[in-house]
Structure formats: C-alpha cells, structure tokens
Known about the structure:
Chain A is about 0% helix and about 55% strand. Chain A is an all-beta fold. In chain A, the strands form two sheets. In chain A, strands 2, 4, 5, 9, 10 and 11 form a six-stranded mixed β-sheet that branches. A five-stranded antiparallel β-sheet of chain A has the order 1-3-8-7-6, with no helix packed on it. Chain A starts with a strand and ends with a strand. Chain B is globular and about 40 Å long. By secondary structure, chain B is an all-beta fold. Helices cover about 0% and strands about 55% of the residues of chain B. In chain B, strands 2, 4, 5, 6, 9, 10 and 11 form a seven-stranded mixed β-sheet that branches. Chain B has a four-stranded antiparallel β-sheet with strand order 1-3-8-7, with no helix packed on it. Classes of the chains: A mainly beta, B mainly beta. The interface between A and B is medium-sized, with 22 and 28 residues.
Amino acid sequence: AxxxxxxxxxxxxxxxxxxxxxxxxxxxxxxxxxxxxxxxNQGLQLLLKYTSAATLVKGINGFEAEFxxxxxxxxxxxxxxxxxxxxxxxxxVRTIYNQGGKLIFGQGxxxxxxx
Amino acid sequence: GAxxxxxxxxxxxxxxxxxxxxxxxxxxxATTMFWYRQFPKQSLMLMATSNEGSKATYEQGVExxxxxxxxxxxxxxxxxxTSAHPEDSSFYICSASGREEQYFGPGTRLTVT
Lengths: 115, 113
C-alpha cells in the first residue's frame, strides 16, 4: 500500500523567505510523486512531478523538489516566497504510472505568506 | 496543457432532488476519469474511478446508488448525486488521466438546502 504524509498542516513564511513544504511517502514499489497547488474554490494545478528520471525536479513558478529514496521524502522548496504563493499544497503518490493510476493525496499544507 | 472542464461550477438544490455534474476533457481523450470530494480545509477524497464504457469502481464507503457515475464517451464523465441531502454539500472535483498525469477540473460547489 502507498501513503503520503505532509508534515505541518500550516506553514507561514515572510515574503522573500525560503519556502519548505515537507512530504514523506510510503511505497512498496518505486513511486511516482507529484506536488499540486490549489487556490480557493479552484481545482488542482500540477507544480511538478517525479517520474524516476532526475531526482531533482524543477516545476513551475520557481518551485522544485528533490526525491530522496533513503529518506522516503519529496520536499517542495522555493528560494523566495511571493505573496501569490499563498495557497494549499498537496503532495501525492501514484500507484502505477500509466492511465488509470489512482492518486493518493497527503493531507495538504496551507502556505501563508506575510508581507 | 490539457484542459478539463466541469459544469456547473456552482449549484444549489433542494433536499431530495438530484444534481448532475459534468466533467469534460476538452483537448484529449481520457479512458479514465476520477471523481473526488473535498470538505473545507481537507484533502481530496477519491470517490470513484470512471472508465469509459464500463461500470465505475467505487471506493470503500461510497454509496454507488447515491453517486451515479456515467462515462459514456472518451471526453465526458458525469456524476449524479441522487436524492441529495445537506450532508452531500461539498466541493466535487474531477480529473482525467492523460498520458503522464491527471488533469483536474476546476471543481463544482454543491450546496443542498
């Protein structure tokens, strides 16, 4: 079985500060990992994905994440937070990397950015 | 990128009535679509997997007779909430499987009065 744990339901940073959102996964098979962002009353937008290629993945809006198998982690980072980054972030693992693979989501982390 | 639409974006209905929500993949064909439910400040809960031309697969605890799913074509899946009650009020999100990832619709806010 696969699972995802996001440490911290709420993270607050100052504008310009480093953003670090934590995600740990559990999987008996090589995982495929995703980070999504959700703005209020909207669907999910893919930030980045790990699909067994490079372990350091760069995504949109300056975000990146590093897959660390030894730590079973896939933390999301951004060097400098913008006010527009305030949103809900979800880490997810996929059971099989093809059509039909279910996504298992973490609990989500709400990011607040202070001016 | 691939676009998924949902209609309606918001709907208010009276208790006991049924509501249909449409999920369309606009520029690609999706053999598989997923339906999620999201409560405020919570994560997405997978309700069912919808496969074109076959019966949907429901997650444990989801009433298949209450949440009817139809996936009649490669670009359209529908979710019908039958005999809706206030506890069915929620944010419903669909996604469509592309070649590499799932593409999410904008969601439908259902309020049952």
